[in-house]
């Protein structure tokens, strides 16, 4: 990837600014002249979609914070009053709620694409690690925001999830009381969660800035996993990738608008439209859908393992299920990046995607012997994929021929497309 800049200020003001603070040069190199591989597909547009959704969440969150009252007796009513009587409250409140779900939809697709095409492999390990840290902060931000609704499901989830900290030996009770500000969910809890929920999005902005910086330093991966060999295999980000991003964002926003205007409550839970009561708990606790796979893993641990209780075991499994993504660059030992050329890995990969969907379904279902059993099986495969398949499959896997360059891959695909066209 070339590091030189093609930016040339044309006007006296821009030349003066460029000599003292080259911010326009920086933006030009970032969003105009940055060279991207010619063979990128639409799955690579979700980085731009995520950036847009983050801006959307921050702006709508600022508006909602102006009307929110962090008081246990007023929080639920303040939200409802703003939604019904506030200026454009009918738009901003569901926009923020639906936006969080679509933020995670884009994040999961972005994460799955990176895993499929080997975007975690050298020299992009740090890009992957920062991306996982972004995901962790997203999860924390979403959980805190969910509790701010202060509905029945919100307070129940806050009580149950925070109660897991008590299972940690020695420091567990202290962590639990520090997080809640007391022995139970109450006013100090709401104050803490409100301040942290407002802070974390700006941490996200910082991490995403590092993520983009890292991508621009080592260059973007592509579906073949082959590094760029010559400048002819790249195109400027603008207009080529920009036009593709605009089209993908437009399609994404159509689905977003459908849920926003026609089904704003579809992804919520009915119990969260009942004012929260810290003295009672919802009979069937269901977190937001993007937490359900991990919630199923937590519930799957129903047995003690030596001195480790089932509760603490569930906490360990929950933490391991998330933190294991940080080690993917070293767990995956295949020399071939892209799953396009790894038939066996491709099969296990799609089984893994189906496994995560199954875990999400089980996480939303009531606890029964059957659901616990299948949750245990699905949890087992989740970790087998990372700890067994990724490191040991490359020793036995027969890969397909990898193109020597991006240009070779494009030529083959163009030839196949012409052949299909002639047959048609």
Automatic annotation (TrEMBL):
Sorted keywords for this record are:
Electron transport, Heme, Iron, Membrane, Metal-binding, Respiratory chain, Transmembrane, Transmembrane helix, Transport
Subcellular location(s): the record lists: Membrane
What are the record's GO terms for cellular component?
Answer: respiratory chain complex III
Membrane association type:
Multi-pass membrane protein
Q: Which GO terms describe its biological process?
A: respiratory electron transport chain
The entry's function note states: Component of the ubiquinol-cytochrome c reductase complex (complex III or cytochrome b-c1 complex), which is a respiratory chain that generates an electrochemical potential coupled to ATP synthesis.
Name of the protein this chain belongs to: Cytochrome b
Organism in which the protein naturally occurs: Bartonella choladocola
